[in-house]
Amino acid sequence: MSPRPLAPGSVIGILGGGQLGRMLALAGAKLGFDMHVFDPEPDCPAARVASRSWAAPWADAGAVEAFADRCDAITYEFENIPVEAVEVAAKTAPLRPGARSLELTQDRITEKRFINEAGVATVAFAPVDSLADLPAAIAITGLPALLKTRRFGYDGKGQAWIRSADDAAAAWESIGEQPAILEGAAAFVRELSVVAARSVDGVVKAWPLAENVHQDGILKQSTAPATSVDDALQARALEIATALGNGMAHVGVFAVELFDLGDGQLLVNEIAPRVHNTGHWTMDACGCDQFEQHVRAVAGWPLGDPAPHSSAVMTNLIGHDVDDWQALASDPQARLHLYGKRKARKGRKMGHLNRLGPLQDRG
Ligand code: AMP
Fold it and tell me: Does residue 345 sit in the same domain as residue 231?
């Protein structure tokens, strides 16, 4: 039997107080929840919109416990929360998504094995624990291949291409000689993502595929619904999301980053067990956006309708892009979302904007 849904007025805690936590806190407040945020940084973006914020190091088990004690359910806004903090929180209040979603996605090898076991394709890969492992790994993946740290990689950090066997030592050194994964190169024509949600009773709903463009390893733009997506490709994306969401026994929103090989095949690059930057377009273009949907799932509510009423181009404001806020604010076509970060730094996500257009018929 499903647990009872949380009533408005209940407290939902968020581990992590960046922009994703901020947009979750805003969405939760809209549904009448008290949103509490835990983050080591007292002035973090989410703390300034939450009903209550808790600032302490992740390793401070007493502080995590005090926060969790006040919560009726707890969620997280990013996957690299130290496991110890998650374990303390999960002992005190229901953690949604659960620890399994984190365990399966914090380590790239564990993640890819899980994806393949769920019947979903990835590039060829092999674990690399030392420089000496590289020749055998290259024999599995072929060249070129991409060496990535197994853990704590984000926005393209901790990655090095190996184009010939001579690059191996330099690549190994450049990722910091840490446990790694070697991945075969995906011959993709474009990068897509499917953002989906799974409810406590196992219903999975997905938004249409988004097409994503990165710059310097950071997402720059998502166009959604992605153009030139036929019904079969969209159905395959939902099938993949359903298999992975069910396999993780996930509760909440998650995103699956995909390589579109252009021949109807999709390979999974990685899973984010949380709301995702490639889902920000849903905030202005869909009946229910990813942040509200996540709060609904965490609260044990029925999922909202993800169907879009418009198409959207979402552009990230990275670093000093945000200095143009006055021009952006006077553009009636731009729906502006700013994260309240105190200082723009190169590569830092400061906000995003959505430009809406008509919804095209697929085909
Ligand atoms: P990731 O940190 O795994 O999301 O990788 C960052 C970016 O690197 C992806 O969005 C792709 O553009 C590229 N990339 C990652 N893995 C591969 C791969 N196996 N083959 C080709 N490109 C990749």
Answer: yes
* CATH number of the domain enclosing 51: 3.40.50.20
In sequence order, the β-bridge partners of residue 53 are 37
Please indicate, yes or no, whether residues 197 and 162 belong to a single structural domain of this protein: no
Is 5 part of any domain? no
pLDDT tens digits, 156-193: 668 999 999 999 999 999 999 999 999 999 999 999 99
Q: What is the pLDDT of residues 33-59, one digit of tens each?
A: 999 999 999 999 999 999 999 999 999
With contact defined as beta carbons under 8 Å apart, do 193 and 272 qualify?
Answer: no
With beta carbons less than 8 A apart as the criterion, state whether 191 and 212 touch.
yes
Whether residue 349 sits in one domain with residue 271: yes
Task: Answer yes or no: is the C-beta of 185 below 6 A from any ligand 1 atom.
Answer: yes
Q: Whose CA is nearest to atom 19 of ligand 1?
A: 185
Question: What number does the ligand 1 atom closest to the CA of 108 have?
Answer: 3
Tell me how far apart the alpha carbons of residues 278 and 228 are, in angstroms, rounded to a whole number.
18
Residue nearest to atom 2 of ligand 1 (CA): 156
pLDDT value of position 198: 98
CA 260 to ligand 1 centroid distance, Å: 12
160: Cβ below 6 Å to ligand 1? no
Domain that holds residue 32: 11-95
Q: Which protein residue's CA is at the shortest distance from atom 8 of ligand 1?
A: 156
Quick check: is 103 in a domain? no
* Rg of the chain over all Cα atoms, to the nearest angstrom: 20
CATH number at residue 143: 3.30.1490.20
> Is 271 found in the same domain as 152?
no
Do 174 and 320 share a domain, yes or no?
no
Indicate if 260 and 336 belong to the same structural domain: yes
* Ligand 1, atom nearest to 185 Cα: 20
pTM of the predicted model as reported, rounded to 2 decimal places? 0.96
Sheet of strand 73-76: strand arrangement: 52-54, 34-38, 11-15, 73-76
Averaged pLDDT, 230-245: 98
Distance 292 CA to ligand 1 centre (A): 29
Mutate to test the pocket of ligand 1, among 269, 271, 278 (most ligand atoms within 8 A of CB): 269
Q: Which atom of ligand 1 is nearest to the CA of 188?
A: 21
Do 175 and 45 share a structural domain?
no
- Of 228, 224, 193, the C-alpha closest to 356 is 224
Q: In 3D, which of 186, 155, 189, 100 has the Cα closest to residue 277?
A: 155
Q: How many distinct structural domains can be found in the chain?
A: 3
